[in-house]
Amino acid sequence: MVERTVIKLRWPAARIVTVGLVVLAVVGLSWGLVGLQVLAQGDPPPAGDNFGMASSDVQWTVGELAFQSNYPAGFQFQAEIRSSAGPIVRGRVIWSHVPGTQRSRPVNVDPDTGTLTAVWDATGSDAVPPWVGLMYYWDVGDSEGNAFQTEPQYVEYEDTTHDWVRTETDDIIVFAQNLPDEVGPLVADAMAAQREMYRAAWGGLLPYKPRAILFGSRGAWLEWQITTVNYSTIGLTSDDWGGTGQVVSGGGLTDLAYGTVLHEVAHLYQNEFTLMVPGSWLIEGNATFFELNQQYNYESSVRHLAASGNLPVLLQGTGPGVSGRNARRGYDIGYTFWKWLVDNYGLEGHRQLIELLDQGIGRVAAIETVTGLTAQDVESRWRTWLGASALPPTLVPTPTFLIFPTIAPLGY
């Protein structure tokens, strides 16, 4: 049984919450406003630093640090930071949604009060959905050249305009809007069931807890896509903010939890652990491989294709496509390749291939290294396993072009 915390978040329509105080206090976390802190002379801040101090006698005073979510329009930071050497004249707020990513905004200093403000407006292509997490800190400098960083603070980009149900486990954080209450626990169970397969296939787990932000209404989904509205899009996964957002308008909850979410989390693993060509059968087939619920029998559909003599060549050119009228076919064909690979070389073979791709080794060369076979042999064995009636066309090796030096005519 998965241990989980399920919380219903129900907000008044016009409420604005700062620093995530209300939400996180409910789950027993102590994210709140930072109280007044005066640093004794010569003592460094607990988790900050006074890098590049022009004076060893400077004292920094940190007052209230506040975060305000203005979803879906963005959010803002406010702080009271003082230097004993002089007024604050520069600074930035720097934040990360997941480890390895970073965003920042410059600080505006109120000339009368000295209050520091930084604003992120969700008006560009970097808009994010609600409920992404932020770990942020202030990096400021005074008029005398002293620099200081505050302790990191954790907050969330809250949507206070809709009712949400939050479910959190060791594997995932789920936010569900206008959906049955059981959807969060169902996703949590699916992630727990697939945890060790992720670990074995990738050589470790994600360095952060992914988020599944599930919208039960298209209107709520479209609110955060302020400048990039695409009415045909029903989902988006990003390693920049570490999760997947999905519009749930059809299909069962089981397929959502054990199919869609596991597929999208696999894309997060791809972005974290390896290099793959986006939009290829290799990347989509790999994500499909981690689904525990299939909408239909993917392998059977490809076996029917093989029996009809219409199985395309896999390792020549770009291989089967994953867009257009037959987009789903590329997913299924890619899935069968990964299934064949793991059936024959185990999850260790999966991990080895991932590591080779991460080193920048080409797809075909990496597959040949893991299997110990030529590309032609891999293609033949994969097709035979699927029941194809004939071997594929001879794979054409990539030509080697010889470049001869240009010889200029005499007199030039």
Q: Which percent range describes the beta-strand content? A: 15-25%
Shape: elongated
**Which CATH C-level class of the largest domain is it?**
Mainly Beta
Question: What is the end-to-end distance?
Answer: 82 Å
Structural class: alpha+beta
State the total count of DSSP E strands.
Answer: 16
Helix content: 25-40%
Any overview of this molecule?
- The protein folds into 3 domains: 1-10 and 161-273, Collagenase ColT, N-terminal domain (Glutaredoxin); 17-156, Immunoglobulins (Immunoglobulin-like, Sandwich), CATH 2.60.40; 275-391, Neutral Protease, domain 2 (Orthogonal Bundle).
- It is elongated, with a radius of gyration of 26 Å.
- β7 (108-109) and β8 (116-121) form a beta hairpin.
- It is an alpha+beta fold.
- Helices cover 30% and strands 22% of the residues.
- The chain is built from 9 helices and 16 strands.
- α2 crosses α7, α4 packs across α5 and α6 (298-307) packs across α7.
- The protein has helices spanning 21-26, 183-202, 218-223, 253-273, 281-289, 298-307, 327-358, 363-371, 375-386; strands at 5-9, 37-38, 60-69, 74-83, 88-96, 103-106, 108-109, 116-121, 133-142, 147-149, 153-156, 164-168, 173-177, 211-215, 235-238, 243-247.
